[in-house]
Design a protein that fits this description.
17 strands, Dihydrodipicolinate Reductase, domain 2, Rossmann fold, single chain, binds nicotinamide-adenine-dinucleotide, globular, 371 residues
């Protein structure tokens, strides 16, 4: 795909900046894609939008996201607003004939996620989700190792996602503490490990979950206290097809954990270990190794693990989180160009949403839920 493509960005917070960096960097890194024209971004006020447009290199800023969606120069819209806005914005963009790159989770209610998938299908446009962790070069390597049977037949998976941004009991109540953002750990965190399962093994088929909140209330900016409405912790048993069992532990209040998305895959002939906190390395144990040499081998990411080579020719120098967003952006452009691409689109994303809602149902009813 060559030529150029007009980009709109809604939201300029944590993820908004990541998308802006990706749109700014993708052509320089990959070369073979359309050149993004950074047309317009939207924020909650005109002033903020203008300031961010200037910082991020966009031509214009608007305080009204509907103006961005109606802009004929905008061909693809990045949606990086809080979860409660995703459905309305994505559907409006698709109905206006734009491609969409929407942050996870798809939506708060399953019915809204289903409406998003239906809108994507009806529009014929490309609509993908912000599942960055599937993009790391070593995650692709893990997929290749599994396919070639490097650890035999997989029989069990253990997944953890932990951070500590909610660990302080006195951390402020904010949108992620509100039920309007979803359940908490299952949709804020669980969707990421579920995205890894989706690309490596396919959809989860049943779950048994227990959700908990470590702190009943939090201080507000107004100086009062407010009851926390979401769950920061989830403990989940799950099953995949073909008899693979799994355990998933999610915790947004895990002091000391900064960006852990840890994966252990156990097979009949070995084990693979990966952790996003050290995502430039993976470990593999092979039962086929000579007994005196048996132990985990550590493999550092390098140009032999595409698309690492597109960033730097030197092995072991390491990619960063924002590079995953650049790879994701490139995959989106490939899909828009009609090529095969490593993306989770709205249709496939529904599998992840269904697993999230099944976790909540399982917690409410204290039983296994088949998806
Ligand atoms: P944030 O609070 O940092 O940023 C959200 C931005 O959206 C803010 O700048 C806010 O002013 C703006 N906004 C809110 N309402 C708006 C509206 N009506 N019009 C225009 N702008 C509006 O939040 P965040 O941490 O960037 O999270 C945003 C989304 O990204 C969430 O859905 C979250 O789940 C997702 N996220 C994904 C990852 C990932 O790894 N893929 C990581 C963090 C967050």
């Amino acid at each position: 795909m060559d030529g150029s493509i007009g980009v709109g960005l809604i939201g300029t917070g944590y993820m908004g900046k990541c998308h802006a960096l990706a749109w700014n960097g993708v052509k320089a890194v990959f070369g073979d894609c359309a050149r993004p024209r950074l047309v317009q971004l939207a924020e909650v006020t005109q002033d903020l939008a203008q300031r961010k447009a200037d910082e991020f290199g966009f031509q214009r800023g608007t305080g009204d996201w509907r103006e961005l969606v109606a802009d004929p120069d905008v061909e693809v819209v990045s949606i990086t607003t809080p979860n409660a806005f995703h459905a309305e914005m994505a559907i409006a963009a698709l109905e206006a004939g734009k491609h969409v790159w929407c942050e996870k989770p798809m939506a708060v209610a399953l019915v809204d996620a289903e409406r998003m998938a239906a809108a994507a299908k009806a529009s014929g446009k490309v609509a993908v989700l912000g599942y960055n962790y599937i993009q790391s070069p070593l995650m692709r390597q893990i997929e290749a190792l599994l396919q070639e049977g490097a650890i035999g037949t997989v029989n069990h998976i253990r997944l953890e996602m932990d951070e500590d941004f909610m660990a302080d009991p006195e951390a402020l109540f904010y949108w992620k503490s509100e039920a309007s953002s979803g359940y908490g750990a299952p949709d804020d965190f669980g969707v990421h490990p579920l995205s890894l399962l989706q690309v490596l093994f396919g959809p989860v088929t049943k779950v048994f979950a227990n959700l908990s909140r470590p702190y009943a209330d939090r201080p507000t900016v107004e100086g009062t206290r407010r009851a926390v409405e979401t769950f920061d912790i989830a403990s989940v048993l799950f099953e995949l097809g073909e008899g693979i069992s799994g355990v998933m532990a999610l915790n947004r209040s895990a002091w000391g954990r900064k960006g852990r998305v840890a994966l252990q895959i156990f097979g009949s002939a070995g084990t693979i270990v990966f952790d996003q906190e050290r995502f430039n390395e993976l470990q593999i144990y092979s039962a086929a190794d000579r007994q005196s040499l048996q132990g985990f081998r550590t493999i550092l990411a390098g140009p032999q693990h595409p698309p690492y080579d597109r960033f730097i020719p030197a092995p072991g120098h390491g990619l960063g989180f924002n590079d995953l967003k650049i790879i994701e952006c490139h995959e989106l452009l490939r899909r828009i160009g009609g090529e095969d691409a490593r993306v989770i689109d709205f249709q496939t994303g529904l599998n992840i949403e269904r697993a999230v809602h099944a976790m909540a149902q399982s917690h409410r009813e204290q039983r296994w839920v088949v998806i």
